[in-house]
Amino acid sequence: MSVTAPRGFVAAGAACGVKASGAPDLALVATADGRPVPAAGVFTSNKATAAPVLVSRSHLAATGGFAVGVVLNSGNANAATGASGQEHAERMCAAVAGPLGTEAEQILVCSTGLIGIPLPIERIESAGPALVSALAADGGPDAARAIMTTDTRQKEAVVAGDGFTVGGMAKGAAMLAPNMATMLAVLTTDAEVDAAVLARALSAGVATSFNALSVDGCTSTNDTVLLLASGLAGPVDEAELQRAVAAACDDLAGQMAADAEGATKVVRVEVQGASSPDDAERIARRIADSALCKCSWYGRDPYWGRILSEAGSAGADFDMDLASVSYGGIEVCRGGIAYDHDEDAVRTHMAEPQLLVTVTLGLGEGSGRILTNDLTHAYVDENMGTS
Known about the structure:
Mean pLDDT: 91
Structural class: alpha+beta
Order of helices and strands: EEEHEEHEHHEEEHEHEHHHEEEHEEH
CATH superfamily of the largest domain: L-amino peptidase D-ALA esterase/amidase
CATH topology of the largest domain: L-amino peptidase D-ALA esterase/amidase
Strand content: 25-35%
CATH class of the largest domain: Alpha Beta
Radius of gyration: 22 Å
Number of helices: 11
Distance between the termini: 32 Å
């Protein structure tokens, strides 16, 4: 049931004509009883900010961190659309708020798709009442399907906590880069917590998942992660909530990396022994964003020289004579030079759908990781045009 697995939530997905194909393109996640509950959000750091992000931020501020639901559309980002775009985002909220019996400020909004094209708001408004009528406790998969763009499959996660549940859905297959990864995610929980605790849990979960994900180094205008809490499971331990939220975010981020446009493998880049955690993250991100490294992973070539070159140019502390590189735990470079290794074992690891690249710097205790993927011909094919 994904996003509706926690008690107190319903969801629905439908086709309203935003996508010319007629595929599902409108989704709603809401509280089952229509009451506002604590809510939190983390949004894109891109200063070319889309209208739905501006509206959701405004609504969370106006309500003091409460919401009844989230309405989402795919097929159109409602970004770079000027003042009319913000008006359309507000109208999206109103289109479901009325049938839900609440105020538009209690609705958060997300959009994903092509940038710079006016949103066909009348189609969304016409579909609002039917979408609300379709809300159901088993509607999570329909909602997850309706937010897909270039995704090849819907992305859902459920994590059991100590007496509570966290559920979620997400979309994302490209323009995935810290901070955040083009992506949308809606998470729910039945834990009883206030908005401040919820915000801390979400920020911590995003930091180690969506903000540690890089597919192509491109940060979107619309990136949004939202978390709502019904409270029906009663009070919970904050640390346990953070663990469950982080696990759900990590699961969804991994699904995004696996479904990245044209990707054949998920790659975890881990950096150990850095002078600081910031240095470790900086180096890991530099390697993960390198087109040369990503192409070598696609070609199953353990090109450690390029990895060390990227590490040395990341603007962090680096000593070539101390650095080592391994694939799947098999060292191919030690002390900055080639190291004798089992080539067949490395080739076998590089042919697997999950690839681990580890760089050990020998400078300190700092560590960091980035989740990414390989770069293939199919990524170019997918992104040569807007249609």
